Amino acid sequence: MEIHHADKAYRKRALWLLAGIVLMCGVLLWQLHAWLDQLTVQLGSHDPDTVRAWVRLLLCALGVALAIPAIGLGLTLRQMGYLARLEGRFPPAQWKTLRDVRVLRDAAGLAWAKRIEAAGVAALALAGLLIGWSIWAWWRFGA
């Protein structure tokens, strides 16, 4: 049985990155309530056209902000699946892993490569839906 060994430096960097993201999300969630309170007071005293413009901008920005990571994930998964199909093994040789994993070859490796590519296509489809939602919100609240 062939083993694809973990990269300890990659594992350490990935864990530090994850900790940083969790910390950043915690701070953003902590500040979200104060920002929403201030926004409610500010928009409550404005006319409906100003509120509509804010809603339009917020919905469009939310769709695009969620689509960007989905695009990155989709492209990465498709690349991983494609390379695994070319090499005839999963995971591809140059990819780094967080832990030691068994290398799959032949039918099992090809099946995983196809699943990973399908997941990449699904992530890209989700990104397309989010972009479409942003376009719809821009059109719907533009009148």
How many DSSP E strands? 4
Number of discrete helical segments: 3
Q: In angstroms, what is the radius of gyration?
A: 21 Å
Largest sheet: 2 strands, antiparallel
- Quote the distance from N terminus to C terminus: 63 Å
pLDDT averaged residue by residue: 93
Major beta sheet, strand line-up: 1-3
N to C succession of SSEs: EHHEEEH
How many domains, in number, for the residues?
1
| Global geometry | elongated
**Which residues sit in consecutive blocks of at least 5 with pLDDT less than 50?**
none
Q: What is the percent of helical residues? A: over 70%
> Structural class, please?
mainly alpha
Strand content: 5-15%
Keywords: Membrane, Transmembrane, Transmembrane helix
Task: Describe, in plain words, how this protein is organized in 3D.
With 143 residues, the protein is mostly helical. It has helices spanning 8-44, 48-87, 106-140, and strands at residues 3-4, 89-90, 101-102, 104-105. The strands form 2 sheets. The chain has a two-stranded antiparallel ribbon. A two-stranded antiparallel ribbon has the order 2-4. It is elongated. The mean pLDDT is 93. Keywords: Membrane, Transmembrane, Transmembrane helix. The chain crosses the membrane at residues 14-33, 53-77, 118-139.
